[in-house]
Amino acid sequence: MHPFAPVQHKCLASGTVRGFALIVMKRWWQGFAVFAGLAATARGEDNGDNGGDGAGPLTDVPGEAEPLVPVSAESMVWLMDRIIEWVERAGAGGEVARIAAVLTVVVFIGCIAVIANWIAKKIILRVIDNVVSRTPWKWDNTLRDNRVFARLSHLAPAAVINLLGKGLFLGNETVMAVIHGVVMVYVVAILLLVVSAVINTIQQFIEMHVAEEGVPVKGFAQAIKLVVFIIGAIFILSIIFGQSPLYFLSGLGALTAVMLLIFRDALLGLVAGVMISVNEMVRVGDWIEMPSNGADGNVIDVSLTTVKVRNWDRTITTVPSYDLISKSFKNWRGMFENKGRRMKRPIHIDMQTIGFVDKPMLERFMRIKRLRPYLEAKLQEVEESNEESCLDMEVLCNGRRLTNLGTFRAYCLAYLKDHPGVFQEELMIVRQLDPGEHGIPIEIYAFTNKTQWVAYEGIQSDIFDHLLSIVGEFGLRVFQEPSGHDLRRAFGSTASATETTAPMKDAPKEDKPAGGDGE
What we know:
This protein is α+β, with helices and mostly antiparallel strands and 519 residues long. The protein contains 18 helices and ten strands.
């Protein structure tokens, strides 16, 4: 312990405070504070008091100029020695002085860490924000929005604590190892968050450029994050247990079977999510139908383990990724990519109204512009066929004749070809299905050139409104189950006819003239 005069003690104490504050502010842009003049002054005083033996706390080389010593473990040891001297000169015991020195240095390191955190967040981050706002690029704005720079700023207090904290327990290797391990775990955790934010930035940047293609970038990003966090967890375990990362990597093989049993569903979902992303089975914006899971609507999110679907009733259904590869579902993406939506609906015709086309009906049909080309070609074909067969055409069973149902089918096809809402490049057919208890179905099979729901329903309704209205012009009648009105009308007409033809049972008898034989 070096003897200090009271005046020297006061000067040294005040010089210590000023020296620390000045050097910290002066050397902060280099990352750490430096005790320059203070260390050199203390070195000279120690040498003078000890008779010039050259034994000082900062250097072992006598006779050389003192270098700029960084604020490190040696600086903290020197500071603790000075504080212990001050406390002992004030009359406290050695143990009390040691505790006071440790507490003082802890508070000092905490203040430096708080100052470092404040400078990193309030000054450096603001400078970065101003620079990023003025650059013409967008990627740096995305980095800022994903808090990449903000998360990096958390490393400043950790660096200060790691640099200065070792001086508190310089002689205790166990405590120093614990402090170093805690700081390193904290640094690894912060770096994992930074890497996660960078991956989010890359994901958003890619999604902005491939938004129209609907590539499920989120699934790939989550897979990369999973790998990164597994590697980070291995490094954290290696720091905590003091083992090499290869030690834990070699142990993963033995844990594979256990992990497969415990995390079976999670692993299946993970593999399914990768398959969905790679094969592009589902994209954001696709319309899918999956009755087994109650999903019928647009896909709003594709992650590594789940797929979210907004149903048409505005409810959200979450479908596990594994169900999409183990169960069947319908994806309407091909319809939207093909720019045509299928229209497949029958018109049921009453079979009792089907018959041959007579001359008055044919003359009426020839006045229909859409039917004229068909009728001219069909009549010529029928006449040539009948002339070749040389049959008696007075019998309806002989030869070929036009029917009102066939003519109606031809009209439907011609109408579809003229309609502006029908996709002309796709298959278009009007066919007759098997007759049944609801009459004979005439199915309209075509594609609209609008895939949006409202536009599609408008085109389809317009087509069938016209066809249902025009059926009567062909002598046909649409089949319909009898309603209450039909039954009342049928029974009402029967009752009226019965009342008209039945004898009156309660009619009064004619009175005979009185006196008959007596006249």
